[in-house]
Amino acid sequence: MSRSYTTGDLAKLAGISVRTVQYYDKRGILSPSDLTEGGRRIYVDSDLEQLRMICFLRELDFSIEQIKRLFAEENARQVLELLLVEHIKETKRELAERKAKLDTTVNLLDRVKNQTGQSLEFLSDISLTMKNQLAWKKLQWKMGISIFLAIVSYVGLILLSSYLQKFWLAYVAMGLFLPGFSWLVIYFRKQFIYLCPHCHQKFEPSFNEFALAGHTPRTRKLTCPHCHQKSYCLELAKEDTVSRDKH
Fold it and tell me: Taking a C-beta distance cutoff of 8 angstroms, is the pair 8, 18 a contact?
């Protein structure tokens, strides 16, 4: 047997305000199943289920108009089912990432406990790396896409020149590719800065040293201008890049 709910009951069960329930009614996406003689709204279990769906869609940044159109579709349930499945997958992925971060934090805590008396400057480096990671990843992604598009454009011009038998296009492509590629490398090199593991100072290497240095995905073997030690230095996004990403 279906239960009946007042507006206040419905709001409490959904974890939202009474005013929000009234607003959804006014916008035509959550109508009450019945009205009392005094004009009070009466809702049932199916209304509560629909309200929970509305709240879920709002969390996914659906607008009121989009929700209204979705509910009007004949296959609304199938669409909602797909959204729920994707939301479950995304939530599981986020939980796995959070667990990985927790495991890393626990391991770092064990290291700290076992390194009594040692300078804790490396903790500052770790904190800086974690805060900088998102901006660094975005820069890497932008650099990879830019280089990929440059190579695709170059290959496209070469193939076009062969197809049209206009070989002067190939010379144009070769003439443009090297300066363009060099400009991309110089531009993105300016977006990065490096952290010395010895003196914990940040610095920007010269272009020649940057280009010739051995590197891993996150470090580059450079000579620190502060302590003059040569080692694998941590690559970071510059602070102005981080500030732009935040805004």
Answer: yes
- Domain boundary assignment for the chain: 4-72, 120-246
- Measured in residues, the chain has a length of 247
pLDDT score of 13: 92
CATH fold of 4-72: Multidrug-efflux Transporter Regulator; Chain: A; Domain 2 (1.10.1660)
- pLDDT at 77 exceeding the cut of 80: no
pTM recorded for the entire structure: 0.40
Nearest Cα neighbor of 181 from 154, 142, 212, 215 is: 154
Per residue, the 3-state secondary structure of 194-227, as one string, reads EECCCCCCEECCCHHHHHHCCECCCEEEEECCCC
Backbone angle region of 113, left / alpha / beta, with phi > 0 → left and psi within -120 to 50 → alpha: alpha
Neighbours of 78 (CB within 10 A): 10
Distance, in Å, from the CA atom of 53 to the CA atom of 47, rounded to the nearest integer, reads 10
Q: Which residues contact 194 (CB under 8 A, 6 or more apart)?
A: 202, 203, 204, 205, 220, 222, 233, 234, 235, 236
What is the structure's pLDDT at 246? 44
Distances 67 to 4, 55, 90, 170 between C-alpha atoms, Å: 24, 10, 21, 53
What is the distance between the alpha carbons of residues 236 and 205, in angstroms, rounded to a whole number? 13
3-state secondary structure of 41: strand
